[in-house]
Amino acid sequence: MAEISEEEEIVTLNLLKQKMHDFARERDWEQYHSPRNLLLALVGEMGELSEIFQWKGEVPKGLSDWKEEEKVHLGEELSDVLLYLVRLSDMCGVDLGQAALRKIRLNAIKYPVPQSNTDVVTSSESISLVD
Ligand SMILES: Nc1ccn([C@H]2C[C@H](O)[C@@H](COP(=O)(O)OP(=O)(O)OP(=O)(O)O)O2)c(=O)n1
After folding, report:
1. CA of 93 to the centre of ligand 1 (A)
2. Does domain 11-127 have CATH number 1.10.290.10?
3. Ligand 1 pocket by C-beta < 6 Å: which residues?
4. By alpha-carbon position, which residue is closest to atom 12 of ligand 1?
5. How far is the CA of 56 from the centre of ligand 1 (A)?
6. How far is CA 33 from CA 24, 51, 103, in A?
7. What is the pLDDT of residues 9-64, one digit of tens each?
8. Do the Cβ atoms of 96 and 86 come closer than 8 Å?
9. Domain map (residue ranges) of the chain
10. Confidence category of residue 4, pLDDT binned at 50, 70, 90
């Protein structure tokens, strides 16, 4: 069976969690990865991410007019935020994937789809979910 290169690896939150765990253990940096330190590192990276957009005004979706190197830099800062968030969640004993799925379900309950968009149309009749 052909080996999967890192670029083709299916990326999951659990994979990122494991890689951050290994990264810290190999360097004996687990001592620094306390929840508070990780939160501050996360906020710092959020600042670096914000700097990319600072003073630019609104930018088009897809960033079509950005240079390739600017997009690469953006990807790096987004990744730093994600990686610290994943590590912070792990160090707090929170299953981030499950927590996020639960939060999406809660969001849907809090903000229901407008009823006019939920009408169900079958081939022979229209069944309205609106009373
Ligand atoms: N104690 C640390 C230091 C770094 N990292 C990892 C997580 C981030 O993905 C990245 C952050 O590295 P830097 O602090 O060097 O930040 P930048 O890569 O943004 O570099 P710079 O701030 O010079 O732009 O490295 C980590 O896990 N734990």
Report:
1. 22
2. no
3. 23, 29, 32, 48, 80, 83-84
4. 80
5. 25
6. 8, 25, 26
7. 899 999 999 999 999 999 999 999 999 999 999 999 999 999 999 999 999 999 99
8. yes
9. 11-127
10. low
ipTM of the complex: 0.97
Cβ of 83: how many Cβ atoms within 10 Å? Answer: 19
Identity of residue 119: D
The pTM assigned to this predicted structure is 0.86
Question: How high is the pLDDT of residue 9?
Answer: 84
Atom of ligand 1 nearest to the CA of 24: 27
Contact 81, 45 (CB under 8 A): yes
- Quote the CA–CA distance of 83 and 13 in Å, as a whole number: 9
How far is the C-alpha of 55 from the C-alpha of 29, rounded, in Å?
Answer: 36
